[in-house]
Amino acid sequence: MNAPQGEINTRSYLQLFNRATLSIEVIVIFIAGLTAHGLKTAPTAHVWVTTGVVAALCVLALGLARFPVGIGFAAVVQVLLVLAGIFIPAMWFLGGIFAIIWIVGVVLGNKIDREKRQYMHSHPEEYPEVRGGGYPIR
Hints:
mainly alpha
């Protein structure tokens, strides 16, 4: 959703990309668990405990995404997602792919947010709120 005309869009793209990746990961983790269970690639208990724990951590990371600790927690979740390959072999691949997607999202999100702040500070006539010390990116 775009900001109404005259209002500044202060949404953080770093948070947006982080949340999008984590949301999709929850779905993929569940599907990987179902696949591993159906193909019997690991013991049933390992599959569902691993799926449940990693999915719960993704949901927790989604809740923490708006706080500064959220990115750090999401990084830990990415590592655990790759390590879930110990119990569900397909997660070596899926976890690695999503870790790469998450890293690219963090790098690009930071870059977009930084450039957005720089643009706002270099065009104070368009963004009068900046004169008072800066307009925060949420």
